[in-house]
Amino acid sequence: xxxxxxxRENPDLxxxxxxxxxxxxxxxxxxxxxxxxxxxxxxxxxxLRAEQNAFGKRVAQAxxxxxxxxxxxxxxxxxxxxxxxQEAAAAETxxxxxxxxxxxxxxxxxxxxxxxxxxxxxxVGTRPSFDxxxxxxxxxxxxxxxIDMARGTKVSGARFYYLRGVAARLEIALxxxxxxxxxxxxxxxxxxxxxxxxxxxxxxxxxxxHSDEIYHLEEDDLYLTGTSEVALAGYHADEIIDVTEPxxxxxxxxxxxxxxxxxxxxxxxxxxxxxxxxLEMFVYIDPSxxxxxxxxxxxxxxxMLQDLGLSYRVIETAAGDLGSSAARKYxxxxxxxxxxxxxxxxxxxNCTTFQxxxxxxxxxxxxxxxxxxATLNGTIATTRWLVxxxxxxxxxxxxxxxxxxxxxxxxxxDVAAAL
RNA sequence: GGAGACGUCGCAUAGUCAGGCCUAGUGCACCACCCUGCUAAGGUGGAGUCCCUUCACGGGGACCAGGGGUUCAAAUCCCCUCGUCUCCGCCA
Length: 419
Fold this sequence. Notes:
The protein is an alpha+beta fold. It has helices at 4-9, 11-21, 26-61, 67-100, 137-143, 149-156, 165-184, 198-203, 229-235, 290-307, 354-359, 385-392; strands at residues 119-124, 147-148, 162-163, 188-191, 195-196, 216-217, 222-224, 247-256, 275-285, 312-316, 328-336, 341-350, 362-364, 370-372, 374-382, 400-401, 415-416.
């Protein structure tokens, strides 16, 4: 949710942000109107209530013979108070809904436009070249006995898979390496719930335009999370926390995505699947330090990709491709040889105070007043990375070489052999 | 799934049976000052969250797990939901 005072005092800033995203600037005006209606309704109710409270005291102190007359007088007042209270509550709900419809205000420098309007910040590493015809990750996965799509489909349907043998171990190794990295950087490891309540899912901003991406359990009214960001953002909901030192968490969880609207896209292999694992960094921080922290998260991600020997680029996504909560987002995309393209391996967003305001997570500022914290999130390892690792480090016989940083987590194994 | 007990402003509790001196008391912890003096004690005062209003000082309102109802008036009475604990049942 955006800051209501910004909405009131600087609506043009918000309208501009909405335009950059390709979202409606008119939402700003309806939110301002709803806010005005809300404040007027509250004013009317409180005036009446104050009158009623004063009367209540007189009734309580009145003598037996005076009471009936007083009671007759306030009867109408009681009805008026009740009506005013209901109006105020309705106005509050409407105003809140209008404010929540507006997406986060994008930060300075975020490019306008949609998915294709990103800006490449840098390219790192050399793209691999082969003196043989390179195989794609699924073929390598099958040759090494690591990926079984057919049985995944048999048991659970399209976009499900089994990782087995060396690939199963590789994923755990990758996640363990990432966990050690974040531990060294002061993150608290967490294993998080993957089913969350509607208000938490809504608070993180995932129930907007892309809510059809999310699995919902009708019977229990719970949502399956597509990232542990959701559970980590909800962790401190409705709390006043101390961010003198930023709170840094790393959530390890299975992630579920419906992938609605991506029919026919990435149908081969494990690039786009309904279920995968991810280690996600999440930070609660003083808003004035959020930007610097964002850079630190990117640096951690780049360190991982570099040490895994991957070629990648860092892009800043355009406003229209940001989630509704994000004010700035960087993606790291690894070069995937058989696709001749960069594919997203990580994403890291600065959500400024947007999520925290929706979820009621505050801290005490210098003057002792409570104010919303800033939140950031970013991927540090996920199943999709196996694609780039396998393809980049493949050998002529269909085997692939294990990057050195992962070998300690695989009992020293240096090559995933062709079976 | 069944039965019972419970849910109060950081923690611990009073208040609920008998609705209105509850503007929710007390202890601990916390902050400031004073006194004293040595790994402490005592005194005075302050202090919750959210909203409205005000340049500000201030003023007003809401909040006793959440929601609804009864009433002039609800922490207190009634209903629903959620959660915790105990016992029983069931179970990967």
